[in-house]
Write a structure and sequence with these properties.
The complex is a heterodimer of chains A (148) and B (636). Helices cover 37% and strands 18% of the residues of chain A. Chain A has 148 residues and is of the alpha/beta class. Chain B has a five-stranded antiparallel beta sheet with strand order 2-1-5-4-3, with helices on both faces. Chain B has a five-stranded antiparallel beta sheet with strand order 9-8-12-11-10, sandwiched between helices. Chain B has a five-stranded mixed beta sheet with strand order 14-16-17-19-18. The chains are: A alpha/beta (148), B alpha+beta (636). The interface between A and B is medium-sized, with 33 and 35 residues.
Chain lengths: 148, 636
């Protein structure tokens, strides 16, 4: 099997990007650099630096996809936020929007949560990207979920 | 077996045979000597019996000696026609005879003619000069005595009732008398003789005297302890042996054996004889008449049973003494041994305590013998052991404290490592995102010089990222946080494809031919996340050290109980001398080719740890300058 065929070029990405992406992260530098990349790839970008602002933006901006950092003020924030978006009646209009975790936290203190969020009674994200991430990896992941 | 028991059997082993030997010898000795002694007593007793037997005759002679001095007897002999004198004397002698229990008392003249018989019907005038005793007295003028047998005719002549008595007691018309004859001397001339005697047939006096004198009429088990018998020839004529009907056993005869030895050969017979209802130790002596002919026998017997019982009793007493003594000896030795063993037991208990780890126990033994010495040495030994033990414990405690310190330090170090690595990730993520966004031209074209510079920054950041990732993994591994969660894992879709995503760009850029020979449906048992780390590291190496335009091949095969997976790349290969250190922590390959592509020195170490945690093995094969191949196994 060769992977050369599945690699998506940036030219291809530029063709039909009119979608809106909400990035929630407490690192302004990361918000800026990802924002730059996505805007360069013709996405509309909205950002929020804490969970509450994120939820507000979700309602006001109605994004097509959410990029979410698990570890904001506390470990639980990202999960709680994702769970809220996916289950609360308040956000039922937005629950079809894919949520992708982008985080440096893979595991902490032996508890491994990126794959067993469901076991803790929480609804998990649609995908997971490990920080640091390279532009093309991020872009192809976003593309994949938007096309679904 | 306990020491005490062993000692006990040891003593028993010495004393028991000794007791048996002494017992047997003593019993044999007692046996032989009791009977011998009894026989000896019979010999003594029969001598005494003879004395009593002969006393009867002595008594008769004494009476005759007195009568021989009587002037009236001499007067009658000198004047035989004076019938008044004769009558008076006859009455007088009859009284004397009856009073002294004699059967005959007769006066004879010097020619042997009977002058006077004191027993009715007072026959006289017959001549007795052929009577051996009388003729001896008349001829020698001295008195004479002895036992003589009288024929029926003589008995008839001697007086009424004598023959009848013989017939009644024994049934033979013969009598046996014991008696004496004394000469009557006047003026140195013998004028006659006086004769007296007692018929032994049927008399009880002599035998009863013997029985009373020697055996004191004692009975043993309702049997007399001794009896006496007088035989005329082989016929019992006077006895105190009582037959089964309770009568004196007169009229019976002696056994042939005794008859031959005593009557025919004239010797004594000694031995055991069955008398009526019991065994008697007996002796038969011949009775001789004055001429030396054997006319009868004197018998005495002593009840053997009595001696046997004495013997039995002696043996019993002796055995009691021996076994009692033995028991005493055993008991005493036992007590002594127990005394000796008390300190030994104390030592044994103390030793047991020590073996259970109690070093405080000491032995208190105050004896001054070998055991006391042993106890002292033992106590000294335990002192030293205790000291030793305390030292060891102290050192152990110190060691434990040091260990804990070390562990804490290590843990702190690892936690810090993990924390720092993680905290570095976020800024790194921002930096990389910005850098690549610019470098890859998302924000507009950049010139070659700018691109080269940004590539250099990107390389540094890649290395930086590698390092952080590896240090994080290392810290988790060594903290024991990476636990293997064995599940069925689809290798391609769950492990290899997600891992490859990160390498796609570089693969394309360097025109590397990636070939995957792993079947799509192949699954392994393992931890998905950990296997991703393994593939991540192996693929990173394969790309990093692979030749531009070279091939990378992923393969899998199965043997009986393992899945064997491999990552092959064409490129620098691995120097032979580095092979061994390849999987060690911080091992880097020190060659010009590798210096350009510096690794963290942790990737392969982490791979090995993960594979070994799965129960598999990992190794490398290589042709230097041509290719390298990493192979690992996973249990099925």
């Amino acid at each position: 099997m060769s992977y050369s065929g599945t690699y998506q070029t940036k030219e291809k990405n530029k063709m039909n990007n009119t979608k809106k992406i909400l990035i929630i992260d407490d690192d302004p530098n990361f918000l800026f650099s990802v924002g730059s990349l996505l805007r360069a790839n013709k996405y509309t970008v909205v950002t929020a630096m804490n969970p509450q602002r994120g939820l507000d933006k979700l309602v006001s901006e109605k994004p097509d996809l959410v990029l979410l950092d698990i570890m904001m003020d506390s470990l639980f924030d990202g999960f709680a936020l994702c769970h809220e978006i996916k289950t609360s009646k308040k956000y039922k209009d937005y629950k079809s929007a894919p949520v992708i975790f982008v985080s440096a936290v893979k595991e902490k203190s032996g508890s491994r949560f990126q794959f067993n969020a469901g076991e803790q009674g929480l609804v998990g994200p649609d995908d997971y990207i490990d920080k640091p991430v390279k532009p093309n990896t991020l872009l192809s992941c976003i593309e994949k979920h938007l096309n679904n | 077996m306990k020491l005490q028991t062993k000692f006990f059997f040891g003593i028993l082993g010495v004393f028991f045979p000794l007791a048996i030997v002494v017992g047997v010898v003593s019993i044999l000795w007692i046996n032989a000597n009791t009977i011998k002694e009894a026989q000896h007593r019979v010999e003594l007793h029969i001598k005494a019996a003879w004395d009593i037997y002969e006393e009867e005759r002595m008594q008769i002679r004494s009476i005759l000696n007195i009568l021989a001095q009587s002037p009236r007897i001499k007067a009658v002999l000198l004047d035989r026609n004076n019938s008044t004198n004769i009558y008076t004397l006859r009455t007088e002698l009859e009284n004397i005879r009856e009073k002294n229990n004699m059967d005959i008392l007769t006066i004879i003249d010097a020619s042997g003619n009977v002058v006077l018989r004191s027993r009715p019907p007072f026959n006289k005038d017959d001549n007795l000069s052929d009577d051996f005793l009388i003729s001896e007295v008349l001829f020698n003028r001295t008195s004479c005595e002895g036992d003589i047998t009288y024929s029926a005719e003589r008995l008839k002549t001697e007086g009424a009732g004598l023959l009848e008595k013989c017939m009644n007691f024994g049934g033979e018309p013969t009598g046996m008398l014991t008696g004496a004859v004394v000469p009557l001397i006047e003026n140195n001339h013998i004028i006659g003789a006086i004769q007296a005697g007692t018929l032994l047939n049927g008399t009880t006096e002599v035998v009863d005297k013997i029985k009373e004198g020697i055996f004191e009429n004692i009975s043993y088990n309702k049997k007399p302890i001794g009896t006496a018998t007088i035989f005329m020839g082989d016929l019992r004529i006077s006895t105190n042996v009582i037959d089964n009907q309770g009568r004196r056993a007169i009229g019976t005869r002696v056994s042939n054996e005794v008859k031959e030895q005593v009557l025919d050969a004239g010797k004594s017979w000694t031995g055991k004889a069955w008398v009526v209802n019991a065994w008697y130790l007996s002796q038969y002596d011949p009775i001789l008449d004055p001429k030396g002919n054997v006319i009868g026998m004197l018998y005495i017997g002593e009840l053997e049973e009595r001696y046997l019982d004495i013997r039995t009793k002696a043996v019993e007493t002796f055995l009691y003494i021996i076994f009692g003594g033995m028991l005493m000896a055993i008991l005493v030795s036992f007590l002594i041994i127990r005394n000796i063993l008390v300190p030994v037991r104390k030592l044994s208990i103390a030793t047991k305590k020590i073996s259970e780890g109690d070093y405080h126990s000491r032995v208190e033994v105050k004896t001054h013998d070998e055991v006391g010495g042993l106890a002292k040495s033992y106590n000294r030994m335990v002192d030293r052991l205790e000291k030793h033990e305390q030292e060891i414990r102290k050192k152990q405690n110190e060691l434990e404290v040091t260990n804990q310190k070390l562990e804490t330090t290590n843990r702190n170090y690892l936690e810090m490592l993990g924390f720092v690595s993680h905290e570095l990730k976020n800024p790194l993520a921002s930096a990389m995102m910005s850098l690549h966004t610019v470098k890859d031209g998302y924000l507009g074209d950049i010139n070659d010089n700018q691109k080269r510079n940004l590539d250099s920054v990107a390389d540094s950041l890649d290395y930086f990222e590698d390092m952080i990732r590896n240090y994080l993994d290392l810290s988790r591994l060594e903290k024991g946080e990476l636990k293997v969660m064995n599940k069925k894992v689809l290798l391609i879709s769950e492990v290899i494809e997600p891992t490859l995503r990160g390498f796609e760009r570089e693969i394309i850029q360097r025109k590397i031919e990636l070939e995957n020979f792993i079947p799509k449906k192949l699954f392994a048992y393992g931890d998905k996340d950990l296997l991703r780390i393994v593939y991540d590291n192996l693929l990173a190496n394969a790309i990093k050290y692979g030749r531009d335009g070279g091939g990378i091949r992923l393969a899998a095969k199965e043997d009986e109980d393992h899945l064997v997976l491999s990552v092959y790349n064409e490129g620098y290969g691995i120097p032979r001398d580095r092979m061994k250190m390849l999987f060690q922590k911080f091992s880097r390959i020190d060659s010009p080719a590798f210096k350009l592509k510096k690794g963290t020195g942790l990737g392969l170490y982490i791979c090995r740890e993960i594979i070994e945690k799965h129960g598999g093995k990992i190794w490398a094969e290589s042709l230097e300058g041509q290719w390298a191949k990493f192979i690992f196994t996973l249990p099925k």
